[in-house]
Design a protein that fits this description.
Elements: H1 3-8, H2 17-27, E1 32-37, H3 44-52, E2 57-64, H4 68-76, E3 83-88, H5 93-97, E4 102-105, H6 121-138, E5 143-146, H7 151-164, E6 173-175, H8 178-192, E7 203-205, E8 212-214, H9 227-238, H10 240-248, H11 256-273, E9 279-286, E10 294-302, E11 305-309, H12 317-342
Helix pairs in contact: 3-11, 6-7, 7-12
The structure holds 1,4-dihydronicotinamide adenine dinucleotide (NAI) and oxaloacetate ion.
Residues 37-38, 40-44, 63-66, 106-111, 120, 124, 127, 130-131, 147-149, 151, 176, 179, 207, 252-255, 258 line the site of 1,4-dihydronicotinamide adenine dinucleotide.
Protein name: Malate dehydrogenase
Catalytic activity: (S)-malate + NAD(+) = oxaloacetate + NADH + H(+)
Subunit structure: Homodimer.
């Protein structure tokens, strides 16, 4: 990976709200509308709480099929600038989305123990397709940040629905894989005794099992592991979602860490929109970097979405093998999403 990506992989986002306050109050660009679709859920509520504290946001529009009036009333009593609006049911989705600069989508069902992310496809594919259709209609130029699983299929669904809706530019549609980066940073800092605030591990590929590839050879600060330890920490990162699903024992999947990661990605999107330099995040996007037509790599973000794709960079032989195993798996999930979208009306 280009050294610039390594240098800037950790963006200045919600992990440093104070910095964000300073940045935006100095430039006065606190003018953005952010919509959260699925705002009443396990991720939606704490993520909306974090977004309510983000000074760049002027309006925070919360949409769900249930409970948004209550969530919006509750958040609106917080003494921060963002104005909160609650929207419930399909007939209020247009109002929620109109004028949005960034849309974050954690709508849909989460896993229970024993399920794969792909087991969520039957329920979540149509939820994401419906919401994508509305985004293409009401805010076609907004950044779209898709959290709903299976991300490896829901992002292709969204892009295909955009194309069907006549919106050909999909360079602002992102699958949020930030939680994989956040986990990698946390686990490697813990293993190596690093200051976690200074650790950056790019994570490439997709967002399920073996498609999640932490590029530990490009970790900043640099670090190395004996092969068995390297394989163990790589597998822990790949299975981290399942670790949480098991620990929650039927009560859902990661919500709080995902809220943090989602708010971080949304803040990076706002930084990019405001013209800030060196905003780099890994995300799952339409891509020509590998034979899989969607792939996550470190991306330089700008006002128009992806400004530069840093690609794979130099991979170790072990990481190259992980990419080889990932690509066919991703291709299956992408095809499944695209076929679903083709038949969706
Ligand atoms: N990308 C990632 O790294 C991660 C993704 N996820 C995924 O995020 C999704 C949400 O997870 P949770 O918040 O824990 O689930 P949850 O069940 O707590 O919340 C989901 C919310 O979506 C709402 N919803 C359902 N259908 C909707 C529709 N048509 N329009 C708008 N809202 C709708 C529900 O009413 C609920 O409030 C799941 O698919 C989960 O697998 C979870 C963790 C990490
Ligand atoms: O594991 C799940 O189902 C939720 C998820 O995507 C994660 O935590 O990475």
């Amino acid at each position: 990976m280009a050294s610039v990506a390594k240098q800037f992989l950790r963006p200045s986002t919600v992990n440093n709200l104070t910095k964000l306050v300073r940045n935006f109050s100095v430039t006065g660009q606190n003018n953005y509308k952010v919509a959260v679709l699925g705002a009443s859920g396990g991720i939606g509520q704490p993520m909306s709480l974090l977004l309510k504290q983000t000074p760049a946001i002027k309006q925070l529009a919360l949409y769900d099929i249930a409970h948004t009036p209550g969530v919006a009333a509750d958040l609106s009593h917080i003494d921060t600038a963002a104005q909160v609006s609650g929207h419930i049911g399909a007939e209020q989705l247009g109002d929620c989305l109109t004028g949005s600069d960034v849309v974050v989508i954690p709508a849909g069902v989460p896993r229970k123990p024993g399920m794969t992310r792909d087991d969520l496809f039957n329920t979540n594919a149509s939820i994401v397709a419906d919401l994508s259709k509305a985004c293409a209609k009401y805010c076609p130029t907004a950044f779209i940040c898709i959290i709903s699983n299976p991300v490896n299929s829901t992002v292709p669904i969204c892009c295909e629905i955009y194309k069907k809706s006549g919106v050909s530019d999909t360079s602002k549609i992102f699958g949020v894989t930030t939680l994989d980066v956040v986990r990698s940073n946390a686990f490697i800092a813990e293993a190596k005794g690093f200051d976690v605030s200074k650790v950056n591990v790019p994570v490439i590929g997709g967002h399920a099992g073996i498609t999640i590839i932490p590029v530990i050879s490009q970790c900043s600060p640099s670090c190395s592991f004996e092969q068995p330890a390297l394989e163990a920490i790589t597998e822990r990162i790949q299975d981290a979602g399942t670790e949480v699903v098991k620990a929650k024992a039927g009560a859902g999947s990661a919500t709080l860490s995902m809220a943090y990661a989602g708010a971080r990605f949304a803040a990076s999107a706002l930084d990019a929109l405001s013209g800030k330099d060196n905003v780099v995040e890994c995300a799952f996007i339409q891509s020509s970097i590998t034979a899989a037509t969607y792939f996550s790599t470190p991306l330089l973000l700008g006002p128009n979405g992806v400004k530069k794709n840093f690609g794979l960079g130099n991979l170790s032989d072990y990481e190259k093998k992980l990419v080889d195993a990932c690509v066919p798996e991703l291709q299956k999930s992408i095809k499944k999403g695209e076929e679903f979208a083709a038949n969706f009306h």
